[in-house]
Write a sequence for this structure.
C-alpha cells in the first residue's frame, strides 16, 4: 500500500510539512506548486529534501487551464508545460496533474481536448514524464470523471492517464461504481478526501471544508471500492483543503491522515475481495459491550468530596485495592474507581490536571486484538509497572493523555474486580438510587481536536457518528457530535470549545487539557430515582422556572406531569422515537458534573435542545460559589 499526502493538506513551510509527513509514515508527497513557489530553495534542493526524508515525489500539481484553449493561448500553454517538465526533471518528479479547464475562453469538445493531451503526451514522453488528467467538479466543460476518462481513452497515449479524486466524484453525486469499467492501468493516481454534507458552491466547499476519509459524510469507502475493483494498485493520496487544518499542528494532521488511509483501506479490503492493493492486516473494528469502569485521579481531600457526592447519588464503597490507595464504588452495573495512590500514572494525571477522569475501561470481546488494531492505526500503547496482586490489562493512550483499558471474558481479566480488590462492608451506605449503567460519557476538547478524536474512535471501534449540533453557551458556541454503537452500550459525546469563556472552555483551561467533563448514568424510572436521591441528601442543579413555562408551550404537557418535572429539576425532550429526561448534579471542581437520564421509547439523542438552559444554570451555580454577579 503506497501512501502520499499533498503538501497543501497541512500547515507550515515546505520543510515543516515534509518532516511531519515522513514522521507520520507516508511513502510519498504531492508537491503543491504554491508550496514550492513560496519556498526559497531550488527544485533540485527540494527534491533532495524529499528524498532525505525517505519520501518520493508522487505527484507535482496542479497544471491549470490547458486543454481546449484557442490561439495564441494554446501555444503559450504548451510552452508553459515544457518549462514545468524541466522543473520536474530537476526536482525528480515524473507525474503531473492537469485539471480540467475552467477558463472562460476555453473551447469545448472531447476530441479537441483528447488531441491536446495526446500532443502534450509526446512532449512529456521526451522528458520521462507522465500526465494525469482530472475532472474538476466545477470544470467548464469537463466536470465528470466519465468525460475525463473518455478524453484519456481517445488520447490513446501511454504517457496520458486518468487521475481520480473522491471529492470531485462524490460532491457531484456521480455513481462511483461507474469507475469499475475503467482499466486500472490507465488510472495514474488516486486522491482521497471526505467532507461534511453541505449544500453550497462546489468550489467553496472544496477549498474550505474537505477533511480526512472517515471524518465527513461522503461515501469515500464506496468510491475506493470501485477504484480497487479496477485492479489499480498505485498510490493512494490525500488532498485536503481545510481552514482548520491550515492552522493546526502539522504532525497531528499528518498522523490523522495516515490513520484515515489505513482505516479506509481496511474497510475496503473487507468489502471488496480480491483487490490488488496490499493492505496491512489488522483485526476488524472492535464491538464494545459496555463501559466497564471510569477511574478518577484525586488527592485524599478531593477524593473525600467526590466520595460524598457519589454517596448522595446512591453509590456504595464496594472494594479496596489490594496494594494501592484505590477504592471501588458501585451501583447497578456501574464501577467508579477513585485513585489517590501517590505513585504511578493516576498520580501524575492528578498533578497535571487536578481531580479528573484519568482512565476508562471498556468491555470488549478480545482485549489483545483491540490493542493490536489500535496500534496498527497509530494509537500509542500504555503500560506501567504492575504491583503486587495487579493484572496486566491491555491499554492505549487517549484524549488529553488519559488511558483506555480493555477487559474481556478471558480467565483473569473477567475476574479483575475479584483479583485486584478486597470487598468492604457497606455499613452506613445510603440507599440505591436505581442507577443501572453509564448511558454516555461527555468528552470536552478544543474544537480543532474534534476531527482527530472522531477518527480515533470510529477507526478503532465499531461505532458510527451522529450529526454535529451547536450547543448554545451564553459565551459562545460549543460544537457537539456523538460516537455510538448500535445497541447504545458505548456512547461518547465529543464537545468542541472555541473559546475559554464557555463552560466547556473553562473546563479545558482550568483543568489544563481536554478530558471527560461529565458522566451520564441511566435509570429506568427517573421520578423514582429522584425520590431516592432526595432521601440521600442529593441537591440537584436548580433550573430556571422560565424553562418549564416554555416547555409547556412547546409540548403541551399535562399539568401534573409538568409540575413533577419542575419540582424535581428534570429537563425534558422528545423526538419521533420517544422521550428523554435529564437531571444534573451541581458542578464539581472546575466544571465537572454528573447527569442522570431516562430514555423512553427509543429516544436517540442527548437533549441538545436543553443544553443552553443547563449551562446557564451551571454558570449561576459557579457564581453562587463566590463569583460576583456583575
Amino acid at each position: 500500500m503506497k501512501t502520499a499526502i499533498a503538501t497543501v493538506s497541512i500547515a507550515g513551510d515546505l520543510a515543516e510539512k515534509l518532516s511531519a509527513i515522513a514522521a507520520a509514515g507516508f511513502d510519498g508527497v504531492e508537491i503543491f506548486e504554491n508550496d514550492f513557489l513560496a519556498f526559497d530553495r531550488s527544485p533540485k534542493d527540494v527534491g533532495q529534501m524529499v528524498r532525505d526524508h525517505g519520501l518520493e515525489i508522487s505527484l507535482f500539481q496542479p497544471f491549470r487551464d490547458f486543454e481546449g484553449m484557442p490561439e495564441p493561448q494554446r501555444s503559450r500553454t504548451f510552452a508553459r508545460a515544457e518549462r514545468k517538465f524541466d522543473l520536474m526533471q530537476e526536482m525528480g518528479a515524473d507525474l503531473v496533474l492537469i485539471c480540467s479547464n475552467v477558463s472562460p475562453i476555453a473551447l469545448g469538445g472531447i476530441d479537441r481536448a483528447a488531441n491536446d493531451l495526446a500532443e502534450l503526451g509526446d512532449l512529456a514522453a521526451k522528458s520521462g514524464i507522465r500526465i494525469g488528467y482530472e475532472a474538476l467538479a466545477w470544470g467548464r466543460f469537463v466536470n465528470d470523471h466519465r468525460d475525463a476518462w473518455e478524453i484519456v481513452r481517445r488520447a490513446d497515449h501511454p504517457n496520458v492517464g486518468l487521475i481520480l479524486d473522491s471529492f470531485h466524484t462524490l460532491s457531484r453525486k456521480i455513481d462511483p461504481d461507474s469507475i469499475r469499467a475503467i482499466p486500472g492501468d490507465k488510472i495514474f493516481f488516486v486522491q482521497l478526501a471526505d467532507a461534511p454534507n453541505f449544500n453550497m458552491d462546489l468550489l467553496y466547499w472544496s477549498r474550505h471544508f474537505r477533511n480526512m476519509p472517515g471524518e465527513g459524510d461522503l461515501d469515500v469507502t464506496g468510491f475506493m471500492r470501485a477504484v480497487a475493483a479496477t485492479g489499480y494498485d498505485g498510490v493512494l493520496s490525500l488532498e485536503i483543503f481545510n481552514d482548520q487544518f491550515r492552522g493546526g499542528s502539522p504532525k497531528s494532521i499528518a498522523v490523522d491522515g495516515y490513520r484515515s488511509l489505513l482505516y479506509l483501506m481496511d474497510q475496503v479490503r473487507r468489502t471488496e475481495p480480491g483487490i490488488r492493493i496490499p493492505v496491512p492486516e489488522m483485526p476488524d473494528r472492535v464491538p464494545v459491550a459496555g463501559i466497564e469502569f471510569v477511574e478518577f485521579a484525586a488527592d485524599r481531600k478531593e477524593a473525600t468530596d467526590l466520595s460524598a457526592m457519589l454517596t448522595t447519588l446512591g453509590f456504595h464503597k464496594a472494594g479496596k485495592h489490594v496494594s494501592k490507595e484505590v477504592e471501588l464504588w458501585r451501583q447497578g452495573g456501574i464501577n467508579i474507581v477513585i485513585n489517590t495512590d501517590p505513585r504511578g500514572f493516576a498520580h501524575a494525571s492528578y498533578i497535571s490536571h487536578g481531580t479528573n477522569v484519568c482512565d476508562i475501561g471498556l468491555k470488549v470481546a478480545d482485549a489483545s486484538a483491540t490493542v493490536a488494531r489500535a496500534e496498527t492505526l497509530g494509537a500509542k500503547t500504555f503500560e506501567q509497572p504492575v504491583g503486587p496482586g495487579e493484572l496486566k490489562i491491555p491499554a492505549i493512550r487517549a484524549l488529553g493523555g488519559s488511558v483506555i483499558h480493555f477487559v474481556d471474558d478471558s480467565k483473569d481479566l473477567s475476574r479483575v474486580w475479584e483479583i485486584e480488590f478486597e470487598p468492604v462492608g457497606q455499613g452506613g451506605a445510603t440507599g440505591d438510587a436505581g442507577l443501572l449503567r453509564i448511558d454516555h460519557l461527555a468528552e470536552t476538547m478544543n474544537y480543532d481536536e474534534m476531527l482527530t478524536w472522531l477518527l480515533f474512535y470510529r477507526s478503532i471501534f465499531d461505532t458510527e457518528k451522529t450529526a454535529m449540533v451547536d450547543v448554545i453557551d451564553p459565551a459562545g458556541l460549543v460544537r457537539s457530535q456523538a460516537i455510538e454503537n448500535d445497541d447504545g452500550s458505548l456512547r461518547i459525546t465529543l464537545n468542541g470549545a472555541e473559546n475559554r469563556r464557555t463552560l466547556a472552555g473553562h473546563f479545558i483551561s482550568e483543568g489544563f487539557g481536554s478530558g471527560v467533563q461529565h458522566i451520564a448514568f441511566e435509570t429506568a424510572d427517573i421520578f423514582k430515582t429522584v425520590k431516592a436521591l432526595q432521601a440521600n441528601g442529593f441537591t440537584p442543579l436548580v433550573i430556571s422556572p422560565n424553562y418549564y413555562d416554555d416547555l409547556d408551550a412547546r409540548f403541551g404537557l399535562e399539568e401534573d406531569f409538568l409540575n413533577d418535572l419542575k419540582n424535581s429539576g428534570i429537563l425534558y425532550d422528545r423526538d419521533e422515537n420517544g422521550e428523554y429526561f435529564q437531571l444534573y448534579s451541581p458542578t464539581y471542581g472546575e466544571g465537572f458534573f454528573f447527569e442522570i437520564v431516562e430514555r423512553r421509547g427509543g429516544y436517540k439523542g442527548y437533549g441538545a435542545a436543553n443544553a443552553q438552559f443547563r449551562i446557564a444554570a451551571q454558570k449561576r451555580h459557579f457564581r453562587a460559589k463566590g463569583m460576583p454577579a456583575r
About this structure: The chain has 21 helices and 25 strands. Residues 626-630 have pLDDT under 50 and may be disordered.
